[in-house]
Amino acid sequence: QAQLVESGGGLVQPGGSLRLSCVASGFIFSNYAMAWFRQAPGKPLESVSFINAYGGSPSYADSVKGRFLITRDNDLSTLSLRKNSLTRDDTAVYYCCKFKGGPIRNPLSYDVRGQGTQVTVSS
Questions:
Q1: Which of 1, 13, 37, 73 has the fewest Cβ atoms within 10 Å of its own Cβ atom?
Q2: What tens digit of pLDDT does each residue of 24-66 get?
Q3: Strand 3-7 and strand 59-60: pairing?
Q4: Which pLDDT band, with edges at 50, 70 and 90, does 22 fall under?
Q5: Among 61, 66, 63, CA closest to 49
Q6: Are residues 41 and 121 in contact, defined by beta-carbon separation less than 8 angstroms?
Q7: In the beta sheet, which residues pair with residue 95?
Q8: What pLDDT digit, counting tens, does each position of 72-83 carry?
């Protein structure tokens, strides 16, 4: 059974940094593109970043471009998201997602999602 487990969330001050991790199990991680989504209170799920199965072609939402960095380690079946220059607008639950096909920004293009990790940006 495919499973994704996120970690690394927490409370951080504006301007601070955080690194999220996601450990995959139950499927061949290196065969699948992966992505990070987030959901802020009262808002729909939002695509944050995407990376292909080989670790290339990263893409980012305009709101995080230049501040976030997505990487993966296929040997460790781990997906990461390095987040810098955080703002209050980055406050959300962040989810790691396994890509099944389709438009990369569409949540329906993913068939497995982790339980999420809360990131709160506040002074």
A1: 1
A2: 999 999 999 999 999 999 999 999 999 999 998 899 999 999 9
A3: unpaired
A4: very high
A5: 61
A6: no
A7: 37
A8: 999 999 999 999
Residues 59, 43: Cα–Cα separation, whole Å:
22
Q: How far apart are the first and last CA of the chain?
A: 40
Token duo for residue 1: 């059974």
